Amino acid sequence: xxxxxxxxxxxxxxxxxxxxxxxxxxxxxxxxxxxxxxxxxxxxxxxxxxxxxxxxxxxxxxxxxxxxxxxxxxxxxxxxxxxxxxxxxxxxxxxxxxxxxxxxxxxxxxxxxxxxxxxxxxxxxxxxxxxxxx
Length: 134
What we know:
Blueprint: E1 21-27, H1 32-35, E2 42-45, H2 49-53, H3 64-70, E3 76-87, E4 90-101, H4 106-110, E5 115-122
Antiparallel strand pairs: 1-2, 1-4, 3-4, 3-5
């Protein structure tokens, strides 16, 4: 079965990533990560995230770059994202940096590739620290 994971690894395309810091963690829906326990999270500098994320669970969806090329190089916006999703029968909670085209909702975009049970995004430092209901 083809594993599809979230596209959050477009740091190389993001001109506005400088300075945004998001909380990063991955766990079950009952984990310290999902409850917003800071001891379960690390601070992720979005501008530095591409090398680490290329091989992570956050980077395996259809890359917006290929679609972006058809859209005449749209601006990419950096956001902090938290979501609960189900993939291959496993439900998980994830937080981290997200990169998406201006005018596109990252939570809606992800639903094309994965079952998203709950999702939120924000654009200030460490703003993705709240639990999500689902």
